[in-house]
Amino acid sequence: MSVTVELDAQYRQLREECGVLVRERSVIAVTGPDGAEYLQGQVTNDVEALEVGEGQYAALLDRKGHMQTDLRVLRTAAEEIQLDLEPEPLAQALRHLTMYSVGRDVVVAEATEERALLSLIGPRAVGVAGTAPLPEFANQRTSIAGIPVLAAGTRGGIDLFSAAAERERLRAALTAAGAVEVSAEAVEIIRVEAGIPRFGAEMDAATMPAEAAIVEDAVSFTKGCYIGQETVARLHYKGRPNRRLRGLRLSAAAAAGAPLRLGDKEVGTLGGAVVSPALGPIGLAIVRREAQPGEQLFVGEDGVTAEVVALPFG
User: Fold this and answer.
1) 148 φ, ψ to 5°?
2) Helix H or strand E segment including 108
3) What domains can be seen in the chain, in order of their start residue?
4) How many Cα atoms within 13 Å fall on the side-chain side of residue 122?
5) Cβ(158)–Cβ(129) under 8 Å?
6) What is the pLDDT of residues 10-58, one digit of tens each?
7) Angle of CA points 298, 301, 307, to nearest 5°
8) Residue 243: beta bridge partners?
9) CB-based burial of residue 183 (10 Å sphere; 0-12 exposed, 13-18 middle, 19+ buried)?
10) Is the separation of the CB atoms in 52 and 65 below 8 Å?
11) What's the pTM?
């Protein structure tokens, strides 16, 4: 089976049935009676508003409002909050959260090696897991085939955290229940189609939340102060970002990292780029304000062009 045919089959599985992917995500455990209060002053969303079993999307910023990482915040117990994030920004996030925790009754510790994450994606995800349907970020402790797991709702299905030692047994149980193993490349197609930015692809340490179009999901404007708040609030209420996350309809497949030009001016860098079975070659990028929907950009030096489109892809 060719790579293209195999990807198409995996894509159909994700869209019509259920695929399972072992995720490469880093995990930080924040424990102690001051955990929620501490994170309230560090991240962009309202952690103290979370009840046990609830969660949210948030960002960790520097003092100038640039992102150190985005992360998922899950309140798993009264004195335990689990954060998960891309591996690339883990070291910086740990340094930040550890440094500012001095003097508080809170422990910040990496838990990546202890916990495995398997994502079930597709309309049959909940049925395969055998759990109750969970709204995005809602979480509960349960078991699958006798294996203790923390289940968390996602936009496209359900995520399952288990002890690292149980990863293969959990994967076997899920495939036995009807999930089909899929590749990260197939899941990337789903992400790009949905217009969801990822740290390390479209977002990096030079990105502000408004530029990545994550403010609505990741930022609370009613909570107390947090690091980087002043810049985020000023941009939200008094200005507009000079750059913005956009979709790109590509004339041909292109490589992530390729420069994007509007005429002779470089306006951004291509982030995630895929060949979608439904939409053809598409990509995501944070581009300068002048690259408005309808504009045509040049991609790299190989003659590929891109039409800028508003997200989500129509």
Assistant:
1) -65, 135
2) strand 107-110
3) 18-177+208-241 (3.30.1360.120)
4) 25
5) yes
6) 999 999 999 999 999 999 999 999 999 999 999 999 999 999 999 999 9
7) 20
8) 288
9) middle
10) no
11) 0.96
